Amino acid sequence: xxxxxxxxxxxxxxxxxxxxxxxxxxxxxxxxxxxxVVKADAYGTGIEMAATALYAAGARFFFVxxxxxxxxxxxxxxxxxxxxxxGLYPGAANLYIRQNLMPVISSMDMLEEWLNKCVERNExxxxxxxxxxxxxxxxxxxxxxxxxxxxxxxxxxxxxxxxSHLACADIPSHxxxxxxxxxxxxxxxxxxxxxxxxxxxxxxxxxxxxxFQMVRPGIALYGGRAVVGRxxxxxxxxxxxxxxxxxxxxxxxxxxxxGASYSLSRDSRLAVIGHGYAxxxxxxxxxxxxxxxxxxxxxxxxxxxxxxxxMDQSIVDITELGPNVPKPGEGVEIFGPNVSxxxxxDVAGTIGYELLTALKGRYTRNYVGNxxxxx
Length: 375
Ligand SMILES: *Cc1c(COP(=O)(O)O)cnc(C)c1O
Hints:
single chain; 375 residues; alpha/beta; TIM Barrel; Lyase, Ornithine Decarboxylase, Chain A, domain 1; 2 domains; eight-stranded mixed sheet; seven-stranded parallel sheet; 22% strand; elongated; binds pyridoxal-5'-phosphate; PLP-binding_barrel; pyridoxal phosphate
């Protein structure tokens, strides 16, 4: 669902900041190709617009999760190289070939289906191979590397790339990183000369050893925090504003919201905003007397969300603003330059990735900063 009235929540995506973030990461990964991960509608920013801006910045390799996302990128970017992280969906090989999508093959079943299609059409269609080095998510098991090598050798087939994925890259000192790096090295021994890729955003920031021939940043492109416990160096890309619906006065002792979970210890001024959990403003961001919730940015100041977040509204204590009272229709910053996505994610006990991709369709998306794009 897309509202176009422009009266509801406004998501502003700074494509210039997105491009600058890609350039900054590309500098760090010097010597390796810097791809761009644009899965989940480019982390909520809009896959066509984001991919186009990233391509203009210099990105040529794109990672999506699903074939549908791959088709969206292909439509926007006829000459991009597109990898589908979820792999080959059964029966979809013809679609991948038609759209020039490369499956990231992670099982013997996927490999057989892809190779059979190559044999049938007498063409070595490109793909990547994913080996699991410690997540038990997608990927061949390490002990399948020899079988995979022997299987493709018989057909003289070679993948475009061999990859794996780090489980704990957000904590650079975690020993699992070194373990996975070593295991990945053992896989690569089976595929000499094939380009390799291991690093997500955090892996990219962790050091050269993790770069190999291609890095795969996602969250850092969109301004999110990749590495825990460090200052986030990325530019803010996404800003979300929600409209004030009503400003009301309330008295000491009165309660706020469902469950009466917040009672006022002073006479207060409250702003009711048109943004709730149905918009992706997680209920875990609610504030009770026992536990503070999210803060939002109103008229130059951080103000607490109090009471339970409802489906379509939430309530903000704006008493501290004094006479500087926002007007109905005015936007309140839910996250952006003044309320970091990751601070808010911390309050909800989640990660910035989830807040970005939890945004539902009930907002208008505005793109700014795309002046660098060729006309
Ligand atoms: C999502 C994903 C990435 C990007 O990760 P970020 O932490 O967002 O940089 C890279 N590789 C794989 C396999 C992924 O699933």
